[in-house]
Amino acid sequence: MVHQHGDAGGKKLIYTHVSMPLTAIDDFRGLAAEDPRFGELAAIVEANNGLWCAAAERYLLDNWDPIDD
User: Fold this and answer.
1) What is the reported pTM?
2) DSSP characters over 6-60
C-alpha cells in the first residue's frame, strides 16, 4: 500500500491482498535500512520522477507477501 504526500490531496493506492503497511512514497528511501525492498521501490519511483508506476507495482506484487484469507 502506498500513498503520496502532497498539498493536492495525495492519492492512496491500497493493495488489499498484499501485506505491506500504508507507506508514503517519500518515505521509501528512509525505510530501506530496515527493509531493502523499500530501497528498490525508491529507486523505481525516483527513476519515474517520483511517481508510482507499473514497474513499482510489479515489484511490489512480486516481492511482498500476499495476505492469506
Assistant:
1) 0.80
2) -TTT--EE--TTB----EEGGGHHHHTTT-HHHHHHHHHHHTTTT---HHHHHHH
CA distances from 19 to 22, 35, 40, 47, 48 (A): 10, 14, 17, 25, 24
11-52 per-position pLDDT tens digit: 788 888 888 888 999 999 999 999 999 999 999 999 999 999
Chain centroid offset of residue 15 CA: 10
Among the listed residues 16, 8, 22, the one whose alpha carbon sits nearest the alpha carbon of residue 66: 16
Q: Calculate the alpha carbon distances from 10 to 13, 33, 43, 51 in Å.
A: 10, 25, 20, 11
Contacts of 34 (CB under 8 A, 6+ apart): none
Of the pLDDT bands very low, low, confident and very high (cuts 50, 70, 90), residue 65 is confident
